[in-house]
Each structure stands twice: as C-alpha cells, then as structure tokens.
From TrEMBL:
Domain of life: Bacteria
PANTHER family (alphabetical): TRANSPOSASE INSH FOR INSERTION SEQUENCE ELEMENT IS5A-RELATED (PTHR35604:SF2)
Protein name as it appears in the record: IS5/IS1182 family transposase
Domain Transposase InsH N-terminal: 25-113
Pfam families, per the entry: DUF772
Length: 175
C-alpha cells in the first residue's frame, strides 16, 4: 500500500447536520473532534508506507479508529462495523454517512506497520501533544503514554474473537 497525502478534509455537510441533530446534548467523539480538531496527519505516517502502489486508507483515520477501538474494547471486526454504522465515528473520521468503511483486516495491518516502524508511541504522544497545545493538560506535568498497552489489548480481543469463530465453525461442522 502507498500513502498519497491528501489535503485536510472537513466533516461532510450531511454528516455534520445529522450528528449535530442526533447528539444535541453532546457525544464524546463529536466533542473530541470539535475541541481538539485534527490530531494526526498523513505526514505523521509517511515512513510506514511506500510511495507507489495501491492507495492506503488515510492512516490518521486508522490511528483514530485504533484509539476508539481501545476505548470501547472492540475487536477489529466490531471497530470496522462501527466505522460503517455509527454517526459519531463517521463525524470524528470526517466520513460521508454513506461511506461503507473498510475490511477489518486493515486495522491489524496498520498496527503491524506501527510496531514494525517503531512508531507505536505516536498514537498517544500526538493526542497528548494536542491536549497540551490546548491547555487541557499541564505543560509542566508528566504524563505517561503507553501505546503498546493499547495495541496489546486490541490484539488480545482479536485473538479471543478468532477462538470464538473457530469454536463456532467446529460446532457447525459437528452438527
């Protein structure tokens, strides 16, 4: 996969209108987008992708999905389904309401690239940096970020899901 950086995008008008109506009393992901703005940029991930080949899903989106996936304790399959079906996720990811998302295997591949490139720390470091810029975290305070814990927890969830799918397939074969 190759990375072809794209200009910053805005939340599509229809997604904005529906999200604001649906979450008039607030939503964590809508607030995250509105208060923090862009956290990641394609340029943060250029060293992880080739310059030629099929275009990759914007890595800034996959980074946000990974953080939301950890927050909600979701497997890759469940996170990909949330991208397809949830208005708040589409809002934060700046996707059209009609966007069909991506195959769940892309998330595992993305995490593999983060680890192989030794840039897994980027996930939480960039988020913390943005919070500091906005004065949400004390500049002099010390914050711990451990992205490997985030990636490990997601990997464990996916392994559990694979075991469940294997058991289901075995029971179906026996039936």
């Amino acid at each position: 996969m190759s990375l072809k950086p794209q200009p910053d995008s805005l939340v599509p008008a229809d997604t904005l209108q529906v999200a604001k109506a649906a979450f008039a009393k607030g939503n964590p992901y809508v607030t995250l987008h509105d208060e923090l703005g862009p956290i990641f940029e394609d340029g943060d991930f250029t060293e992880l992708f080739s310059k030629v080949g099929q275009s990759a899903i914007p890595p800034w989106r996959l980074a946000l999905v990974t953080i939301m996936q950890f927050r909600e304790n979701l497997s890759d399959r469940q996170a990909a389904e949330a991208v397809r079906s949830r208005i708040d996720w589409k809002y934060l990811l700046r996707l059209e309401l009609t966007d069909t998302g991506f195959n769940y295997s892309v998330l595992s591949e993305f995490r593999g690239r983060l680890l192989a490139g030794n840039v897994e720390h980027l996930l939480l470091d960039k988020l913390l940096e943005r919070c500091r810029e906005l004065g949400l975290v004390k500049a002099g305070g010390q914050q711990r970020t451990d992205s490997t814990r985030v990636l490990g927890a997601i990997r464990s969830l996916n392994r559990l899901e694979v075991v469940g799918e294997t058991l289901r397939a075995a029971l179906n074969d026996l039936a």
